[in-house]
Amino acid sequence: MSTIAIDLQYLPNLEFFCAIWEAEEIWLCSEDNYQRKSWFNRTQIKLTNKVETLSVPIVGRRPRVPLAEVMIDYSQNWQKNHLRGIQSAYGKAPFFEFFFPYLENVFEKKPAYLWDLNLGFLTICLKLLQRPVKLRKVEKKAIVQADVDLRWLLRPGGDFSDRKYYQPIPYLQLFGLDFEPNLSILDLLFCEGPSARRLIQKSIKKE
């Protein structure tokens, strides 16, 4: 599989990485319109008693606006809340101290647009996973040339088990006895460190 077109996620979940793992190029189209109830501005982490959704606030309702024009609302103290939530969830994880500074660095850049924030996080996550894949920004008309188009298919409203990309492979999480699948890549990185790459490969659903 050579090229996969997909929409950006905020700190993407495991299904996202399973879906793009074998691609040589990932195509991203900033001309696509923003869609509510997507992963574009939200992710999920595991706290002591629950799975918590972290959402990035955006300026206005943003109906039918290109992704590249969705602005982050910095009037809300969301960055501090997200960092505190991540620290609370994973501060005692084995690889927290190693990976957390990379996240802080992306947050501190405070990009105006959510597209740039998500792209920054995707770039660093792929680096931490040691997955050398080319990220390419393409125009909407070029998407038809992609080998696979996954834009807006991986949505919060659907069940990942109904799709063909991710099968949960349990690993040791910090809280609770029950394994929570398909959380943000942060959960896997902080808990498993260098083993995260191998676990993603094992989690790719076989057709």
TrEMBL record:
Pfam families: WbqC (PF08889)
Name by which UniProt lists this protein: WbqC-like protein family protein
Origin species: Algoriphagus hitonicola
InterPro entries for the chain: WbqC
